[in-house]
Fold:
Amino acid sequence: MLRIMIVDDEELSIKRLSRILRESGKVGECRSFLVPDEAYEYAKSHPIDIAFLDISMPEISGMTFSGLLQELDEAMDIVFVTGYDTYAAEAFERSALDYLLKPVTAERVLRVLQKFELG
Structure:
């Protein structure tokens, strides 16, 4: 079962993605955070398979935050979740597992989980 972390400053986005992940039947643990600092502290002592990160957050960009997480655990996969398609190239330059546009759909999230399993 996968260990997932969601970091997004929009509570509704977190709720939607959390529900989709839980319903997939592939997720054992799903922690969500509105504040990146709290997510970072959690990731220091808890292994994460996939981190779903919003790109546009007030405290720190998801792009920058992904680098901090990968310094903790380079095996952690990153999926960027955003309302903007303009960051896709940069996301894949940072070796993102995937790039999801909001609002996320169950079909796209399931494809991400399958990609992880195949990787």
Q: What stands out?
A: The first helix runs from residue 11 to 24.
